[in-house]
Amino acid sequence: MRPIVKYGSQVLRQPCAPVTQIDPAIKSLVFDLFDSMKAAEGVGLAAPQLGVLKRVVVVDISRQQPEILPISLINPRIVAAQGREVGEEGCLSFPDLYGPVPRHTQVRVEALDIQGKQFAVAAEGFYARALQHEIDHLDGKLFIDYLSPLKRQLMRGRLMALKQEGEQWDRDHPLP
Ligand code: NI
């Protein structure tokens, strides 16, 4: 298990590189993502949140919808999307902060599994929201980017406190 990088770190704002080879390091990254997500009781986690700039995410909404199994997605891409709804969202890089984020209600995502095999997942509602949130992380996009200036203003104190944690991460783990 690795610590989750908090808001304020530059690593959360970088575009992530596609995975070109599913080697033992990528497999171990996937296991670490699952472990850290579970320990934090999250519904998803993206590689940059562990300080790794690779296009890898995990999603597990089985507490909310037990019929949907946890999955890992390597190089995920949204290939179709429709509908739109605003829903309350949080992020493990922003403990205890939530805000309204517009997302597509249905998405189709293509990705590679841990064996390197291509697969597609059709998701709707909360599942679709979780996938969109995690895939955003791979492009350095965070849920607060969708909030109104007023909402962000209301969060300002908490964001400033988090930012110090994130900046400390950068001092300990400088980007190459
Ligand atoms: Ni997040």
Quick overview:
The chain has 176 residues and is of the alpha+beta class. Helices cover 30% and strands 24% of the residues. It is globular, with a radius of gyration of 16 Å.
Helices and strands: which structural class?
alpha+beta
CATH topology: Peptide Deformylase
Our count of helices gives: 4
Radius of gyration: 16 Å
CATH superfamily: Peptide deformylase
* Element string (H = helix, E = strand): HEEEEEEEHHH
Our measurement of the CA-to-CA distance between the termini, rounded to an integer number of angstroms, reads 23 Å
**Overall 3D form:** globular
In the CATH scheme, the class would be: Alpha Beta
**Low-confidence parts lasting 5 or more residues at pLDDT below 50?**
none
**Count the strands?**
7
Strand content: 15-25%
Helix content: 25-40%
Description:
With 176 residues, the chain is α+β, with helices and mostly antiparallel strands. The chain has one domain (10-172): Peptide deformylase (Peptide Deformylase, Alpha-Beta Complex), CATH 3.90.45. It contains 4 helices and 7 strands. It has a 5-stranded antiparallel β-sheet. Strand 6 and strand 7 form a beta hairpin. The longest helix has 17 residues, at 156-172. The chain is globular and about 45 Å long. The structure holds nickel (II) ion. Nickel (II) ion (NI) binds at residues 91-93, 133, 137.
